[in-house]
Amino acid sequence: MTMPMRSMQIALGLAMLVIALPAGAQTPAKTKAAADVPATTTAAPVKKVDLPTPPPNYEYAPQGRRDPFVSLIDRGNDGKDTGAASARRADGVPGMLTGELTVRGILQTRGAWVAMVSGPDGKVYTVRAGVRLADGVVRSVSATTVVILQEVNDPLSLEKQREVRKFLRGGGDVK
After folding, report:
1. Radius of gyration over alpha carbons of the chain, in Å?
2. What three-state secondary structure class fits 136?
3. Nearest to residue 84, comparing CAs of 134, 132, 130, 131?
4. What is the CATH number of the domain that holds 122?
5. How far apart are CA 168 and CA 140, in angstroms?
6. Domain annotation covers residue 102
7. What is the Cβ-side half-sphere exposure of residue 23, based on CA atoms within 13 angstroms?
8. Is residue 70 part of a domain?
9. Number of structural domains found in the chain
């Protein structure tokens, strides 16, 4: 054998020895006597991290920002609406919105027309001209129509009121 070939064999043997050494240096298997004694592992104690404490009498001021820790999913109507419907509405006709009214019937008593309307609660109420609603006033009642003057709460609208007609036989007309 030549000298370079011999040195190559020695280098290869040393490399195999270096690779095999860590595999042979593994911990030996437990003996039967060691298996009978329960293992008591002492883990290193976990260090507690001292968190900064807020100063006394600290109070978070959101200043119009939402709470970042409150989920936005399935929030629904959380009572932050603006306009006439934001506060708790009155019971009966004074608490109804124009869009919630349905004309059920119209009749004439003592020369004046009276409309029978139902609201979202399913009850039927009677209204005459001049009766106040949550977002308007009943302007007039005729044989086939109830005319409501609705207040518009849109800041971009030039009109502050609009006339809504509720017909006895379905449909509705806005002017």
Report:
1. 42
2. strand
3. 134
4. 2.30.30.830
5. 13
6. yes
7. 5
8. no
9. 1
Can you point out the beta strands (E) in 38-101?
Answer: none
Domain annotation covers residue 16? no
Residues in a beta bridge with 107: 114
> What 3-state DSSP class applies to 12?
helix
Cα–Cα distance for residue pair 102/169, rounded to 1 Å: 10
pLDDT band with cut points at 50, 70 and 90 for residue 84: very low
Count other Cβ atoms within 10 Å, centred on residue 64: 5
Q: Let me know how long the chain is.
A: 175
Segment 22-46, tens digit of pLDDT: 665 566 655 555 555 555 566 677 7
CA angle 42, 48, 53 (to 5 degrees): 170
Q: Where in the sequence is the domain holding 123, given as residue range(s)?
A: 93-174
Is 149 inside a domain boundary? yes
Residue pLDDT, tens place only, 143-154:
999 999 999 888
Residue pointed to by tokens 């002017």 = 175
- Is 137 or 36 the better-scoring residue by pLDDT? 137
